[in-house]
Amino acid sequence: MLVAYAGKDSLQIFKISKEVIQKIGSGSVDKVKPIRSLGKKVLIVGRDAHLHLRKRYPPVAAGDLKKIIALEIGDLFPLKNPAHSFRVFEGTASHTLVDIWAWESAFTERIAASVFPFTHIIPEDAAFISQRPEISIETNGGNTYIVASSPDGFSGSTLIKGTAKPEHVEIFLKGLGRYGETFKTLVFSGVTDAKAVADLKTLPLEVIAKQREYPACIDSVTSAKLADFALEGSGLADIIPVAMRGIIYLLIGIAVSFVVTGWNYNASVVEINKKINKLSGDMAALASGPKKEDRQDIVEELKKKLAEGASPLTVLDMIAGILPERSNVIRIVLGDKNLEITMQAEDPLNLIKEMGKSDMVKSLKLRGSPTKEPTSNRAPQDQSRGRYTFTVMVELK
User: Fold this and answer.
1) Which of 99, 127, 218, 249 is least enclosed, having the fewest CB within 10 Å?
2) Can you give the pLDDT at residue 169?
3) How many C-beta neighbours within 10 Å does residue 372 have?
């Protein structure tokens, strides 16, 4: 198996064979020799190249949690175009604690395209797994990284300037709360100061010094559940070049889009035409009146309003074009250049993406989180079962 460690300014590539770790390349992305081989290729995104937070969510199914995080990832991190990974840290009947890591997608896409076409991608924190609860200390370049891990995986981490001291470890363990008491072993590397080593050994832990010529996380990357970090369609990654895969996926997407559009078009058009006919009747009523003077004033005012903002007919036609089957519009509020629309759909993420592709849309944002009413609260014939209700704020061009 090949493993690449991507720091902010460098890339190191290692070959792991029968627990032997051998470095086969290192340097900047522009200077490392490209890797072309079959099999698993794991990219570890270094701690200086990703951001991390632990967030509390309601107890939801794994598929729903994935969609919710994908919808709000852009608001969670100050990144231009974030790629992300997540792992459930703790799940109870009342909440779900989730570790979320994010990094600039352009950073890893550049590595995949030019040097290391990886099949799996793991944030450095998530790569730490130990046979027993263990604190790992790694000092490199004047900074020390402390991370706690167990057989279940990552528990917590911190970064400090300089060399770790016993008080740093004690504060870190207290920060882990009730989990801190389970850690009885400390493994450190990169600490060369004799006094610092002696100080660490005064801790009430089993202290082990280890010499490494590679990042500490690589020791346990083979123990990680790599399936959780596999790229979608990674089975083709070693056969078809990245550019060719992109073209194939694009063509498949267009074909599927045509089929789905054909299925849903008639139902959507009937619903939108009803709204258009009603709106046309209201406009005709406004254009008529007992007095010619009054009628002319109303017509002029209506023309002025229509010229200032988006045409309601055009907006409704745009919505009809992207509305999938088993979805409906609950409420529409149209201003001069703003649109607030509340909808029900089975897959709000795809619907929002399709709306964002419209030539009329300048920007859009989900207001709040999608809500899904439990099935037990509805009658069996209720058509809204299994659908999410959500509101989108749209800025029109």
Assistant:
1) 249
2) 94
3) 19
Rg of the chain on CA atoms, in Å: 28
- Choose among 326, 328, 312: nearest CA to 360: 312
Closest CA to 134 of 94, 184, 95: 184
- Among 84, 86, 97, smallest CA distance to 58 is for 97
**Angle between helix 292-308 and 242-287 (nearest 10):** 170
Q: Is 113 helix (H, G, I), strand (E, B) or coil?
A: helix
The predicted model gives 307-317 an average pLDDT of 78
Q: What is the pLDDT of residues 36-82, one digit of tens each?
A: 888 889 999 999 999 999 999 999 999 999 999 999 999 999 999 99
Question: How buried is 259 (Cβ within 10 angstroms: 0-12 exposed, 13-18 middle, 19+ buried)?
Answer: exposed
Report residue 105 as tokens: 């997608």
Angle at 176 between CA 172 and CA 180, to 5 degrees: 90
Q: Where are the beta strands (DSSP E) in 289-357?
A: 328-334, 338-345
pTM over 0.85: no
Residue-range domains of the chain with CATH: 1-128+221-239 (3.30.420), 129-219 (3.30.420.40), 247-396 (no CATH)
State the Cα–Cα distance between residues 229 and 76, nearest whole angstrom: 21
CA nearest 147: which of 213, 203, 215? 215
Sheet of 82-91: strand order equals 51-57, 96-104, 82-91
Q: What integer pLDDT is reported at residue 235 of this predicted model?
A: 44
User: Is 29 strand, coil or helix?
Assistant: coil
pLDDT score recorded for residue 239? 41
Query: How many angstroms separate the CA atoms of 352 and 335, rounded?
Result: 20
- Residue 215: helix, strand or coil by DSSP? coil
